């Protein structure tokens, strides 16, 4: 039994397991503080559009007819709605790859943020969704949104290290990391997903990863790491760590071309955060890729 498994979950019998949380590190304390303090307009203004708050990026073609004339007084509002639509389209694509999910299934969102993807998953499948985040502020926000929507019986966010969750082994029908895998060691991560997933369950991640064909992380990838205090992994590490933990890829989709229109539109908005050029340049020079990987737990 790996140290992660031992420190994570000492099961005595169903329902009476003794849960010992995975150790947290000073780094995870910093990440918790980052997200507790985060309040960027680019995230809050987009979430205000329909109450789905995301901390991930968009995919798909920009609907320029929806934007209208850039000189129109309503243009900024339409641009925010369009950026948000593209971010919600990204979550829809992730959900498309979870496979057949029943109302009595349980899903796990590892690194759930303010819970936008959790709400979308429940609205699509009618199932239960458990989310974990290091940020108490995010967990509270997500649970408040669930109460406002009257779905608090179905979705729940908690402060918990995704490397050591309290969830029973082999019970999750599907689980995912939506732009949250770059904060943890992938072997530890996929060992925990492999533990909580049912045999035949589905794991999905949408992530940015550095491209081994480029050679090493580029300066743009380093800028993104510094901006978010994260540690972007290579595409090779994802596939190797999955294989070592009984996760066999069913689909690997390069979403790089699909995310560029979002970034090019975002770079024209008043909500820029300064990281836009690093994403655009790294996608264009091939050093960075935006991938969806869907894998079966065998
Ligand atoms: C970029 S946000 C993505 C949020 C969400 N997946 C979404 O798509 O909106 C990254 C999330 O990962 C969470 N996170 C980072 N490291 C974590 C860890 N070790 N355990 C649990 N959550 C973690 C952060 O708290 C944050 O909620
Ligand atoms: C693809 C990669 C490597 C992403 C890193 C993880 C991350 C911080 C995503 C966006 O969060 P956000 O929506 O809070 O960021 P922003 O403020 O830029 O919109
Ligand atoms: Mg954002």
UniProtKB/TrEMBL annotation:
An annotated GO BP: methylation
Superkingdom of source: Bacteria
Keyword hit for Membrane: no
GO molecular function: methyltransferase activity
Gene3D superfamilies: Vaccinia Virus protein VP39
SUPFAM superfamilies listed in its UniProt record: S-adenosyl-L-methionine-dependent methyltransferases
The keyword RNA-binding is assigned to this record: no
InterPro entries (alphabetical): Erg6_SMT_methyltransf (IPR050447), GPPMT_Stmyces (IPR049645), SAM-dependent_MTases_sf (IPR029063)
Cited Pfam families: CMAS (PF02353)
Keywords: Methyltransferase, Transferase
Residues in coiled coil: none
Name this protein carries in UniProt: Class I SAM-dependent methyltransferase
Species for this entry: Streptomyces coffeae
